[in-house]
Design brief:
Layout lengths: L13 E4 H4 L1 E4 L13 E5 L2 E6 L8 E5 L7 E4 L4 E2 L3 E6 L5 H9 L17 H4 L3 E4 L2 H41 L2 H7 L9 H4 L6 E4 L2 E4 L3 E4 H4 L1 E4 L14 E4 L1 H6 L7 E2 L8 E2 L4 E4 L6 E3 L5 E3 L3 E5 L5 H20 L10 H6 L1 E4 L2 H41 L16
Parallel strand pairs: 3-7, 14-19
Antiparallel strand pairs: 1-9, 2-8, 3-4, 5-6, 5-8, 10-11, 12-21, 13-20, 14-15, 16-19, 17-18, 17-20
Helix pairs in contact: 2-4, 4-11
Length: 412
């Protein structure tokens, strides 16, 4: 047997090997050109890469990154196609599939890398690893505790998608298409709007440099409604001691802080420190705009922190999102390896703004949506930290799941 993680078994647990509890098999090769449109996810070592009309396995399923990206583990409810870059559980041997998923989340796949140029995970090296193993009822309870946390995180993610879509739709209707003004000009009540909100809109248009806009409103450059503060070259602020700040780069903006994230000194000037709720915008590489929820961090170069003394956060955020596709197109046209936009593009991007009191009144509808997005993201971060703390202790048997649940579990 290969030595596995430290084992702190409860009385009813067994000492076994991974191969005796979950048989792994290499996935199946398929190229994107071979995809036939369908509903079956094709899962590679990096996640879902597309959807195909045929499945190779029914769900629930567990898939591990085998080649390229090691250490990734995916749980699938329905039918799926495990890609050639993965290993998948062909036989659960009567074990609870979601428990098996969480077990593999604790596997140090990097340590098992047998590749030369490219990282590779070999099932023959995984199967002999010794492991503590819970009885079925305890497996179900452990999966229930961890799964409840993951399910809430996923619910928050889907809820945020909906909230973001609602905010963008309302913003476009009011500030781009001017639907309420058009309705009032036609003698109609603006759709889905109470009288107090409708009264904030004028009933006519006026000409501007970008065409007709709501009467009494004004046109500003994007960099005229907010400050776009570029980050620092943080190698000038090397980390010292345990109080170091995680460095927020494009990867962190996309995926959050990780153990691989760099660290910077707390001597970073205050204005370059990122806080929860800050609007961040990467202007090179992968152009993204996001409300940060990863805790205190240091703003790296290639990212803007967007702040405004004259306009609310939700308003600046929506205008950045509105211009983001055009900024991405500009960056994609660059001949360099890392496309980017320049500050002049911020000046060329136009925004339309109502008078301050009107903007405050309209914010009563959109701002709560954005505030809820931030709240949900912060909640998910807390739940994720709790899950990550519980996961190794529950899977190793160090922590008795009966301390966390009222489910009756037989141990004899």
């Amino acid at each position: 047997h290969v030595r596995g993680p430290a084992i702190h078994m409860n009385a009813a647990w067994t000492s076994t090997t991974i191969g005796d509890q979950a048989t792994l098999q290499r996935g199946f090769d398929i190229t994107r050109r071979q995809f036939i449109p369908g509903c079956t996810p094709v899962i590679s070592s990096g996640g879902v890469i597309g959807y195909h009309s045929e499945a190779k396995s029914g769900g629930p399923g567990v898939v591990l990154g085998r080649k390229g990206t090691l250490g990734t583990v995916f749980y699938v409810e329905g039918e799926y196609w495990p890609h050639d870059t993965t290993l998948w559980v062909k036989d659960f041997h009567g074990n609870w599939p979601r428990y098996v998923y969480y077990f593999f989340k604790t596997l140090d796949a990097i340590r098992l890398d047998v590749g030369s140029a490219n990282p590779t995970l070999n099932r023959n090296h995984v199967h002999p690893i010794a492991a503590p193993w819970a009885p079925l009822r305890e497996q179900q309870a452990i999966a229930h505790v961890l799964g409840t946390l993951d399910d809430k995180i996923e619910l928050n993610r889907r809820m945020n998608e909906t909230l973001e879509e609602m905010a963008r739709a309302i913003f476009k209707s009011w500030f781009v298409d001017f639907d309420p003004v058009k309705a009032k000009m036609d003698g109609r009540k603006p759709y889905g709007m109470d009288d107090e909100t409708a009264a904030l809109f004028p009933d006519s248009f006026e000409d501007s440099e970008i065409g007709r806009i709501s009467k009494g409103w004004s046109v500003h450059n994007l960099d005229g409604i907010a400050e776009f503060l570029n980050g620092l070259a943080l190698q000038k602020y090397p980390a010292e001691g345990p109080e170091a700040l995680p460095v927020v780069k494009i990867a962190e903006l996309r995926n959050g802080i990780s153990p691989k994230s760099g660290r910077a000194s707390t001597d970073v000037p205050e204005r370059y420190v990122v806080a929860d709720g800050d609007l961040l915008f990467s202007w090179s590489g992968s152009l993204l705009a996001k409300l940060w929820s990863g805790g205190p961090g240091a703003l790296n170069q290639h990212l803007f922190k967007v702040t405004s003394a004259s306009h609310p956060r939700w308003f600046c955020y929506q205008w950045v999102l509105r211009h983001l596709p055009e900024f991405q197109r500009i960056a994609a046209d660059k001949a360099t390896t890392m496309g980017h936009i320049q500050r002049r593009h911020l000046a060329e991007a136009k925004t339309v703004s109502p008078p301050g009191p009107v903007l405050d009144g309209l914010g009563a509808t959109i701002a709560p949506l954005i505030d809820r997005v931030v709240h949900n993201s912060l909640e998910s971060r807390t739940l994720g930290s709790l899950r990550d703390a519980l996961l190794p202790k529950l899977i190793s048997g160090e922590l008795d799941v009966r301390e966390l649940t009222d489910l009756p579990i037989e141990t004899a």
